[in-house]
Design brief:
The protein has 19 helices and 5 strands. The longest helix has 23 residues, at 270-292. Helices cover 45% and strands 6% of the residues. It folds into 3 domains: 9-134, Rossmann fold; 135-165 and 211-292, Serine Threonine Protein Phosphatase 5, Tetratricopeptide repeat, CATH 1.25.40.80; 303-479, DNA Cyclobutane Dipyrimidine Photolyase, subunit A, domain 3 (Orthogonal Bundle), CATH 1.10.579. Strands 3-2-1-4-5 form a 5-stranded parallel β-sheet, with helices on both faces. By secondary structure, it is mainly alpha-helical.
Length: 480
Amino acid sequence: MASEVGSPVIVWFRRDLRTDDNAALSAAAENGQPVIALYIREPETAGTGPLGAAQAWWLHHSLVALGKSLEALGTPLLLRSGVAHTVLDDLIEETGAATVHWNRRYDPAGIAIDTEIKASLKERGITAKSFAGELLHDPTRLLTGEKKPYRVYTPFWRAFERDGEPHEPIGTPAKLEAPHPLPKSETLDDWNLLPEKPDWAATFNEVWTPGEGSALERLEIFVDGAIDGYGVKRDHPAINATSLLSPHLAMGEISPARVWYATRGLKAPTDDVVHFRRELVWREFCHHLHFHFPALAEKNWNDRFNAFAWEGSDSDFSAWTRGETGYPIVDAGMRQLWKHGWMHNRVRMITASFLIKHLMIDWRRGEKWFRDTLVDADAASNAANWQWVAGSGADASPFFRIFNPILQGEKFDPDGAYVRSFVPELEKLDAAFIHKPFDAPESVLKKAGIVLGETYPKPLVDHAKARERALSAYKALKDD
């Protein structure tokens, strides 16, 4: 085994596909040793790769972008497949590397794998260093006065504020030294991350350009103007008023610290900046919950919901996934998800509430669907937000708060611009009925070229009756 001085340093990339504010990479560059930049495609059973098919599409393009960035700095990106422990052992044997760096991950599977690898490497005299960077604060730091996890967001936010500013982001290393000889790499195309027949992701690039460069550009555009009015406009899905940073954050193409510090000293109204920062900290809260309750995606946080009587059918679930529920704001959201691998946050709440409370389908089915179809899939945020809507989670919205999809549409998409974008069969319908075509007179439907049940579906359920059914199920749960 080569000595540590002068031997290569392996930098193991995971959900930190960037060169900016990457502590593991910067630390490796500082000592002047050759850097082996490595991404491991771990087995699906490890639970540490892309969370679904949509995110696999993103990962492919993100790795292409990262490879170009690393090449420009002086070292290539090495791709290997297999069990992480074995891949690292083989690479250490091949190259004489005596140090391995990585940035910490906080999902249960990742923690277990990393803990085992670090212990094994240290036993063999290999230096293993892990760094922070995926979150603004380590989830072990913020605890209640009783040293317990927070269950409510507002006290968590206050504790976050008391804990002081997050670390200031560091820049990209000026240069990286490549190892000689270069270890062999697998080819990205052989990983088959992209859909082909059919290419259901063909329209993703209408909105998304994966990679660190695009992430930094989006951040600049947002803080230079789009953040103005964020607190109000962000709820309107037809307005381009959100940062669109979520998939970049999910894959670590930009660090939350870089985003946080970009909002300092802005001329935007203070309320808008605070509102945006609170959204960043909500992400932290989700990871806090997931870290302290690893089964968040499988089990109700509030175990009283274990006895809830789910009644929904497979046909209703299938109609929901296709955006054919007969409620335009719901259908627009589900079709946006299919078309762009993303859905506006307000509409995510509406569609999730509809599945759970109108169709009486277990929130876990919705969580799995979103995990597979979202490019910004995040194990912690996805699970925590679905449980929030279901009423079973920490600091959850009460189950009896049932979104009325008609009123939600009329309030947040008043002229129907969002619906018309994703439900083209309703494009010519009068604004007065765009969120309730089932109430439109036959003459209005005919003028718009709509035949309910043929060109656009009739509602799967009646809102009032569905609401009563959900409330009755909840009352039965409370009365048990």
